[in-house]
Amino acid sequence: MLYSTLCYLEQGDQYLMLHRVKKAHDVNQGKWIGVGGKFLDGESPEDCVLRECLEETGLTLTEYRYRGLVTFVSNAAPTEYMHLFTASAWTGVPHGCDEGELAWIKKDQLRSLPLWEGDKIFLGLLETEEPFFSLKLRYEGDRLVQAVLNGKVLDQE
């Protein structure tokens, strides 16, 4: 099992997104995602998101919210528990990221970018201010085959 964080830094009608184009053999290659990464031993979700955001962006989060837990189940990778955050304030000067290109993207343009199908579900939950949620996403390869929100299967049309 893997434990990770993902954070969407929010500025007005935009999110800071990472276009994963720099690492070879990256499961997220070519996709647009938030910033975050894997836990280090002894870290809490908050410790991890603060460290990963600083490492990937150069920014220190000062206002952030823990929004939900996303469980990824795949036939091609170990199960991953991703702790999802949004941030609305930070300090520091942004720098380049060795995992991809950072860019501010308008929320209404996100779905036109290459995203994981499951990411579209939790981005919608963030936009509607859904209270803390648990989302289970089951993939076969790159294809989302099931989504379960707070214990209820979502229609996949």
Textual characterization of the structure:
The protein is of the alpha+beta class. It has two helices and ten strands, in the order ββββαβββαβββ. The chain has helices spanning 45-57, 117-127; strands at 2-11, 14-19, 32-33, 35-38, 59-74, 80-92, 101-106, 133-140, 143-149, 152-153. Strands 1, 2, 3, 4, 5, 6, 7, 8, 9 and 10 form a ten-stranded mixed β-sheet that branches.
Fold blueprint:
Blueprint: E1 2-11, E2 14-19, E3 32-33, E4 35-38, H1 45-57, E5 59-74, E6 80-92, E7 101-106, H2 117-127, E8 133-140, E9 143-149, E10 152-153
Parallel strand pairs: 1-6, 5-8
Antiparallel strand pairs: 1-2, 1-4, 2-3, 2-7, 5-6, 8-9, 9-10
Mean pLDDT: 91
Low-confidence sequence ranges: none
Name the CATH class: Alpha Beta
Radius of gyration: 15 Å
Describe this structure in a few short sentences.
This protein has 157 residues and is an alpha+beta fold.
List keywords for this structure.
ten-stranded mixed beta sheet, Nucleoside Triphosphate Pyrophosphohydrolase, alpha+beta
